[in-house]
């Protein structure tokens, strides 16, 4: 099949490359000429494990192409995906659909013959109706169907998620479009990936509901972690104890500094606004969003408390800046609020991240960026682990203690057994694991 992907950002590029890897012929279109020029030279604008290899192999095989102009790519396509950004709209938190509507108008002007137009971007309920109305207005004669096909890609594991998905959700009432989508995803037949076909509005809501539920699990265990610290319980054991219940499950029950990224903060806020507009408020999700924002700065205060209540004039080493490992994405990363809290209290922050430094420079001021882990730690008054990159999981603790001016470690991801650090004479603070549990 011939597929055109409008938008060569994270979702568009990963999806386009994977469809090409299935054997489809894919053109990724983006208005940013620098991005397209870089892709044509084999330079990937985002960090995603395995993506560069898939892009290169499919370009070489003649199945993956890049363009800045969509007319020709859309004209020859069986399926056109809209995978443009839907950021939170300034002022009210609603998803900004400017790029989606613009793409719909440009697609409408270019389509020839029966074309399935798919919203891959995360969009509010009813967006498919709006896209269809725009195309009907521009091209009353066009033969097309609009389908919702939300993505469920985890940054850092997107290739595996696309090729071995938990489920494929397709929202359409058009039988012909449903057959086209089945054919598009037929390469996943052997994996027996569940294909859920529902109406368009249901598919649009599934994406928001899924992200809101996962955000709720994260926020729930974070609040339980705070309670554990007060009552002398261990949040990791609590999480294991409840996660073994099949009705709850163990995933997303890892206490930490709060969620970030391009999806959860934006999508929970958008769902709140959708529900308010429908006069059906989602109070739980409202609370989740509010609690998560407060938590990030609270983690900064936790670091200050570990340093004796005062970090003025002190240097704090930060390991991990991105919102999660295996990505360079800094959007809504907890590190931003934590670092700003430390800076507001007078601390100098020296940071290291394996992939996120260049993106961090665009959102953080006054941070000193180190070339490696130990350069960040050298001479610091405290060490804070914010993102659980694998490279931070087996530090030379004796060397760390020697390099630190004061042996203070704040582990906001609980990646170390407390005994390992307390036994070496560190002041060690983690999340939801009271130090008294591990002291003699």
Question: Quick recap of the structure?
Answer:
Helices cover 43% and strands 13% of the residues. The protein has 17 helices and 14 strands.
Explain what this protein looks like in three dimensions:
By secondary structure, this protein is of the alpha/beta class. Helix content is about 45%, strand content about 15%. It contains 17 helices and 14 strands. It has helices at about 10-20, 35-40, 50-60, 70-75, 100-110, 125-140, 160-165, 175-185, 200-230, 235-245, 265-275, 285-305, 335-345, 355-360, 375, 395-405, 420; strands spanning about 1-5, 25-30, 65, 80, 115-120, 145-150, 170, 195-200, 315-320, 350, 370, 380-385, 410, 425-430. The protein has a 6-stranded parallel β-sheet with strand order 3-2-1-4-5-6, sandwiched between helices. A 6-stranded parallel β-sheet has the order 11-10-9-12-13-14. Helix 11 (about 265-275) runs antiparallel to helix 12 (about 285-305). It starts with a strand and ends in an 11-residue tail after the last strand. The mean pLDDT is about 95.
Q: How many helices?
A: 17
**Strand order in the sheet with the most strands:** 3-2-1-4-5-6
Coarse morphology: elongated
Rg to the nearest angstrom?
Answer: 24 Å
The whole-number mean of residue pLDDT values reads 95
Q: The biggest beta sheet, please?
A: 6 strands, parallel
Distance between the termini: 66 Å
The number of strands is: 14
Percent of residues in helices = 40-55%
Approximately how much beta-strand content do the residues carry?
A: 5-15%
């Amino acid at each position: 099949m011939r597929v055109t992907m409008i938008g060569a950002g994270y979702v568009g590029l990963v999806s386009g490359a994977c469809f090409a890897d299935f054997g489809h012929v894919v053109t990724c279109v983006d208005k940013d000429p620098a991005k397209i020029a870089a892709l044509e030279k084999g330079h990937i604008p985002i960090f995603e494990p395995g993506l560069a290899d898939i892009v290169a192999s499919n370009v070489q095989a003649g199945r993956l192409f890049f363009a800045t102009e969509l007319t020709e790519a859309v004209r020859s396509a069986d399926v056109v995906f809209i995978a443009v950004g839907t950021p939170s709209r300034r002022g009210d938190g609603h998803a900004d659909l400017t790029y989606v509507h613009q793409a719909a108008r440009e697609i409408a002007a270019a389509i020839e013959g029966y074309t399935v137009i798919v919203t891959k971007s995360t969009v509010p309920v009813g967006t498919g109706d709006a896209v269809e109305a725009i195309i009907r207005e521009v091209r009353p004669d066009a033969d097309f169907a609009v389908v919702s096909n939300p993505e469920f890609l985890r940054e850092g594991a997107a290739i595996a998620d696309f090729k071995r998905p938990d489920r494929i959700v397709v929202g359409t009432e058009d039988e012909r479009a449903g057959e086209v989508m089945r054919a598009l995803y037929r390469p996943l037949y052997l994996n027996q990936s569940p294909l859920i076909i529902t109406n368009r509005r249901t598919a649009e809501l599934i994406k928001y509901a899924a992200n809101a539920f996962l955000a709720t699990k994260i926020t729930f265990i974070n609040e339980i972690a705070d309670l554990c610290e007060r009552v002398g319980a261990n949040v990791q054991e609590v999480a294991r104890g409840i996660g073994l219940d099949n009705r709850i499950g163990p995933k997303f029950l890892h206490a930490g500094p709060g969620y970030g990224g391009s999806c959860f903060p934006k999508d929970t806020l958008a769902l709140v606004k959708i529900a308010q507009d429908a006069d059906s408020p989602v109070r739980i999700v409202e609370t989740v969003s509010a609690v998560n924002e407060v938590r990030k700065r609270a983690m900064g205060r936790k670091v200050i408390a570990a340093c004796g209540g005062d970090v003025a004039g002190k240097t704090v080493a930060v390991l991990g800046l991105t919102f999660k490992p295996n990505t360079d994405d800094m959007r809504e990363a907890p590190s931003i609020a934590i670092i700003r809290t430390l800076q507001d209290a007078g601390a100098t922050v020296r940071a290291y991240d394996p992939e996120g430094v260049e993106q961090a420079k665009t959102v953080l001021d006054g941070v000193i960026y180190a070339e490696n882990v130990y350069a960040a730690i050298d001479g610091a008054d405290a060490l804070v682990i914010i993102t659980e990159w694998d490279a931070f999981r087996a530090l030379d603790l004796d060397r760390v203690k020697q390099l630190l001016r004061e042996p203070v470690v704040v582990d906001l991801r609980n990646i170390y057994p407390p005994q390992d650090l307390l036994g070496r004479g560190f002041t060690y603070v983690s999340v939801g694991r009271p130090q008294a549990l591990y002291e003699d």
